Amino acid sequence: MDEMRAVLFDRYGDPDVLRVGSLPTPTPGPDEVLVRVQAVGVNGADLLNRSGRLGLAARGPFPKTVGIDFVGEFTALGASVSGLRTGERVWGVLGRRAGSMAEYLVVPSRLVAPAPRNLSAEEAVSLVTGGTTAITALRDTAHLTAGERLLVRGAGGGVGSVAVQVGKILGAHVVGLAGASGHDFVRALGADEVADYRTTALADLGTFDVVLDAVGTQQSRLRRLLRPGGRTVAITVDFHRPLRSFATILASSVFGGKRIRFFSGQPETALLAEITGYAERGDLVPVVDTVHPLHRVTDAHRALEAGGVRGKHVVRLS
Ligand SMILES: NC(=O)c1ccc[n+]([C@@H]2O[C@H](COP(=O)([O-])OP(=O)(O)OC[C@H]3O[C@@H](n4cnc5c(N)ncnc54)[C@H](OP(=O)(O)O)[C@@H]3O)[C@@H](O)[C@H]2O)c1
């Protein structure tokens, strides 16, 4: 077990730069756990990372790794870790540190929780990044309350498809903005209204108490859709113009009452366990577009990049 398979890339580029290579199998430190990874989601963040669009936010030398979330089982626990047992199926999100698309992963024990027992690894991983991001954005950042009008922009994607469900859990009237191929399932997830982003102008969507923006462009136009007291939570920016995007977010906190809030999530055990509870009660349901084997990781990236995703592309490792 000295070496393990891992998805690597040696330069930024299109999905063909990805390769399955090998890395030394990591060893957990005192507060860490070793996870044998079973499934990893393909996230919008992975495409940004691989293509080089993260710019200065990307750290470390080549070869670089991909994958920000995981479901797997503990195979070893650090000396200071208590309350966990090997063999337990867990899940988590690495945040900005990529590298979960590998056979083994070392992660601090505070960043994992038991995965939902009612779901397969592939189903579960489709919920973990979207679930933790949507709860943080809608409940903890926007303080969305029952009866408010919520716009989920990017409703067909990994985060958006869970955000629609979280919006309904919180009692909002949910409008999902998605490509036409996603309308049926976004409605089936509970959206009260759906609109096609390719044919509907933002100004024609009405007004909102809360906007969750999973796309990042047209920030000023989105802000104009807010009612008095309205809140936008941006989980991404326009990576073609990142400085301008961040400047708009900053300016919104100084000028006018319609502030755009931005966060970059790093969910810990308590939040992960909450999402586990929602999934086990059936309040959050997984939406898996396609499960890809590890050696087809290039296809998985290509499929997400092509557009029209329905929930999540997932890569199976074992
Ligand atoms: N801040 C955080 O903590 C955090 C956490 C998770 C994700 N993120 C970021 O959030 C973004 C979304 O992530 P994701 O994993 O959900 O990506 P994803 O699965 O690729 O979903 C993006 C969705 O947006 C749709 N879309 C594209 N342009 C649109 C537009 N103009 N209007 C409405 N919808 C549009 C896409 O539809 P088509 O496929 O039909 O084009 C797709 O369904 C990424 O940039 C990611 O890095 C941030």
Give the topology.
Blueprint: E1 3-9, E2 18-24, E3 32-42, H1 44-51, E4 64-65, E5 69-77, E6 89-93, E7 104-108, E8 113-114, H2 121-141, E9 149-153, H3 158-169, E10 173-178, H4 183-188, E11 193-196, E12 208-213, H5 219-223, E13 226-234, H6 242-254, E14 260-262, H7 269-280, E15 288-293, H8 297-306, E16 312-316
Helix pairs in contact: 2-3, 2-7
Bound molecules: NADP nicotinamide-adenine-dinucleotide phosphate (NAP).
NADP nicotinamide-adenine-dinucleotide phosphate binds next to helix 1, helix 2, helix 3 and strand 10.
Keywords:
single chain, 318 residues, alpha/beta, 7-stranded mixed sheet, 6-stranded parallel sheet, 16 strands, binds NADP nicotinamide-adenine-dinucleotide phosphate
